[in-house]
Amino acid sequence: MRKVLLPFAFAGCFIGQALAQPKDGGVKNDMPVWPSRVLQVDSAIVTRHEITVKGVKVPYTATAGSMPVWDEDGKPVAGVFYTYYEREDVKDKSGRPLVISFNGGPGTPSVWMEIGYTGPRLLNIDDEGYPVQPYGLRDNPQSILDVADIVYIDPVNTGYSRPVNKDIPGSKFYGVNADVKYLAEWINTFVTRRNRWASPKFLIGESYGTTRVSGLALELQNAHWMYLNGVILVSPTELGIERNGPLDAALKLPYFTATAWYHKKLGAELQQKDLTDLLPEVENFTINELIPALSKGGSLDEAQRKSIAARIARYSGVSERVVQENNLDVSFNLFWKELLREQGFTVGRLDSRYKGIDKKTGGEEPDYNAELTAWLQAFTPAINIYLREELNYKTDLHYNMFGKVWPWDNQNNQTGENLRQAIAQNPFLHLLVQSGYYDGACDYFNAKYSMWQMDPGGKLKGRLKWEGYRSGHMMYLRKDDLAAANENLRVFIRESIPQKGQPARY
């Protein structure tokens, strides 16, 4: 991979390594003077690279920089950091897709998908996603850069993004609707600066990023008249769609089954089935029997209660006694603690293939998230090495893997409905949902439920698609799923772009 530093056209935007010049005319000090921790609101460093994707060489430029968030008076209130990858050998950008990428939290940057999933560089991990040393990166032969340009965006106070000063109120950024509003403005500025108004556009978000892009789809369409071709939800949240009571208690059972199957905690009859053959059976039980039973509450007779408890235990790997003690509603926390309790392990929240060790075997929840500590160990060194050494972005700001964005205003979260409206209003707009079977934070069956509820009349289902993978929240960390998920993105992007001259009409 080659790397050449290029000048950039924006005024006052170049950030580089300067050499200190002595005031007394003596021998110059060759130690670099690094920038301070003051935010660079408008900055860009451009480097040139090349990767091979599916046997084809893809030359590209990488821009690491920041652009302003403007207030109502046109003054910058924050700088949002981004990295932008643009294929060099495509001259006509009008037909070249642009993928706009966010991660979640809220409070995390776009590092996870950038160097773990779709970007041209991939962090060093083993084939199942566990950290290895030495830390670093390699080329990503599965990157979607062959079919689309990509911009990864770090919301305010994540990565290198910051408010311009401490007096800027957090309410401008830290909330479901504030987040959508300022990021839509930022995207407008980016698309305008980069001359990408003609390009087919896609939003992709992971975890809380799915809440973000679901809201952005309608905000961009209604407030900026920017119409999308696709939205991709990776490990989606509940998107503001209510599911309290029996629904909340029941919908997690298929995830319990997948996790118990992975750890070989089911009975022999179920264990011998393939996962994707087993799960439809559990989904049917959940919808047709468990939800009605839980809806009866205390009126459920003892025989029915015992029968339902036995079925939950059979499908979850948790004892019937524990199910009964918890009124047929085993919490996520208790499940993560209970499933492998006798073996002395807990299972991970975001990816239940990972195991942890607690101080005490007893208790009702794990001491820590086993998978998250592993991921932070792999991603944090890699992104710091990558931005500073490969993309040449020099700053003394801390790269916030988790930024302070609290309190976060979750009121009036209508993002699922926002996305439904955007799809209904725009005949070109398609939806792809990607879920990992072992994700307990944004479990796969709740993702299916959200998609069903966004289209209660079934009128949009020809443009809605769900896909499952044998991994967790970041399904792409597993080598086989990295290849499959990226290929599914390629297919989705190609199929979501209409034929030339095709009108957007029903």
Automatic annotation (TrEMBL):
A Pfam family this chain is assigned to: Peptidase_S10
Record protein name field: Carboxypeptidase C (Cathepsin A)
Signal peptide: 1-20
Coiled coil regions in record: none
One GO-annotated biological process of the protein: proteolysis
Keywords: Carboxypeptidase, Glycoprotein, Hydrolase, Protease, Signal
MF terms (GO), sorted A to Z: serine-type carboxypeptidase activity
InterPro entries: AB_hydrolase_fold, Peptidase_S10
